[in-house]
């Protein structure tokens, strides 16, 4: 499956994986599932769910203040 | 509003506000009548406090339980060399007193916990979150969302900042709508561990202060529903749409969190965690 992964604040990544989960997309852009969430239409999707969209956004968590 | 009662010095001090049709004397009076709580008087809190005070926000609450350290001074611009070892709330209050005598500072030299957050938030019109840990971020999110108090969220690391506003309206998302639970402890680095460009919190904190001022004046469109990511390294801004999540544990259709006492604000900040 071909998915365009937009990491917010970075360039888009074109990812090709067989039957990926959303967690697989996070790993494919070299992020840890603990530090990022996948958004579809502005809402998070479960990392263990199969990918159903060909374009997603990934948002990283940061906490510093 | 307590009525327009700007004295000659205030008319002079705030003249660049008052001259704008979008603000005018009414908008300035709203600022003078407003009460804004700054959680944290550190990297983000410093510019927030500076600009809220300069703008004439009548009452600024400052909550922080830290003391000033030398390593803070590279970015925490309301504190100086002579403040090292002093409580940050005292140092910040002294800064405000020198900057603008119109502003009253309420010092809360305490760590914000589930025992005090509800009373604290209830006293203010707007909250600005400049905290540096997930426990406080989730606690503030839950308390403000449940109480319907709008709040600004800012976070920084290295060259990167994130900022958004949650207005706590019926249709507004909250922080848990995008990040339902905190990551496990230690999985996301802090500024102490990974570093932060000294000027970065200035940019992000100024955006937070801008949002708080607009909310206090009742003018403009906030970042509610949008999260801005600022990358200082390549000087770019990116925006992500964020929408209310029907499965959100605090503001969704069947929320599990009805009170901050339903959550242990440690580790992942989950129900009964």
Main attributes of the structure:
heterodimer; A: 65 residues; mainly beta; 1 helix; 11% helix; globular; B: 273 residues; alpha/beta; 10 helices; HesA/MoeB/ThiF family protein (chain B)
Give the arrangement of secondary structure elements.
The complex is a heterodimer of chains A (65) and B (273).
Chain A (H helix, E strand, L loop, with lengths): L1 E6 L4 E5 L5 H7 L7 E5 L2 E2 L10 E6 L5
Parallel strand pairs in A: 1-5
Antiparallel strand pairs in A: 1-2, 3-4, 3-5
Chain B lengths: L7 H6 L1 H4 L5 H10 L1 E5 L5 H11 L3 E5 L24 H12 L4 E5 L8 H6 L3 E4 L4 H14 L3 E7 L2 E7 L8 H4 L12 H4 L5 H18 L8 E6 L4 E6 L32
Helix pairs in contact in B: 4-5, 4-10
Short description:
Chain A has 65 residues and is mainly beta. In chain A, 11% of the residues lie in helices and 37% in strands. Chain A starts with a strand and ends in a 5-residue tail after the last strand.
Strand percentage of chain B: 15-25%
Total strands of chain A = 5
Strand content of chain A: 35-45%
What is the alpha-carbon Rg of chain B in Å?
A: 18 Å
- Give the helix level of chain B as a range of percent: 25-40%
Question: What is the 3D form of chain B?
Answer: globular
In terms of quaternary structure, what is this?
heterodimer
Give the chain pair forming the largest contact, with residue counts.
Answer: A-B, 18 and 45 residues
- The structural class of chain B is alpha/beta
SSE pattern of chain A: EEHEEE
Number of helices of chain B: 10
**Which residues of chain B sit in consecutive blocks of at least 5 with pLDDT less than 50?**
none
Low-confidence stretches of chain A: none
| Helix segment tally of chain A | 1
Biggest β-sheet: strands ordered side by side in the sheet of chain A: 2-1-5-3-4
Distance between the termini of chain A: 39 Å
């Amino acid at each position: 499956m071909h998915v365009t992964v937009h990491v917010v604040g970075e360039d888009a990544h074109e990812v090709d994986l067989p039957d990926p989960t959303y967690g697989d997309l996070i790993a494919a852009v070299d992020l840890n599932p603990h530090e990022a969430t996948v958004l579809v239409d502005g809402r998070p999707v479960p990392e263990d769910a199969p990918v159903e969209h060909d374009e997603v956004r990934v948002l990283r968590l940061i906490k510093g203040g | 509003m307590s009525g327009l009662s700007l004295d000659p010095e205030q008319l002079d001090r705030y003249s660049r506000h008052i001259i704008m049709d979008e603000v005018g004397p009414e908008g300035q009076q709203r600022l003078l009548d407003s009460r804004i709580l700054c959680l944290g008087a550190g990297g983000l809190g410093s510019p927030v406090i500076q600009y809220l005070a300069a703008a004439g926000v009548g009452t600024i609450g400052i909550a922080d339980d830290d003391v000033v350290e030398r390593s803070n001074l590279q970015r925490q611009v309301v504190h100086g060399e002579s403040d090292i070892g002093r409580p940050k709330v005292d140092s910040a209050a002294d800064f405000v007193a020198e900057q603008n005598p119109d502003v009253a500072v309420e010092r809360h030299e305490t760590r914000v916990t589930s025992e005090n957050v509800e009373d604290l938030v209830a006293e203010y019109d707007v909250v600005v979150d400049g905290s540096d840990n997930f426990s406080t971020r989730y606690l503030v999110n839950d308390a403000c969302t449940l109480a319907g108090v709008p709040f600004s969220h800012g976070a920084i690391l290295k060259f990167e900042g994130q900022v958004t506003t949650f207005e706590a309206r019926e249709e507004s998302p909250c922080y848990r709508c995008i990040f339902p639970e905190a990551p496990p402890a230690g999985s996301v680095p802090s500024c102490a561990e990974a570093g932060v460009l000294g000027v970065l919190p200035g940019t992000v904190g100024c955006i937070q202060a801008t949002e708080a001022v607009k909310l206090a004046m009742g003018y403009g469109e906030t970042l509610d529903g949008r999260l801005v990511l600022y990358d200082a390294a390549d000087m770019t801004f990116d925006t992500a749409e964020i929408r209310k999540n029907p499965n959100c544990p605090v503001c969704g259709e069947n929320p599990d969190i009805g009170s901050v006492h339903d959550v242990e604000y440690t580790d992942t900040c989950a129900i009964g965690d």
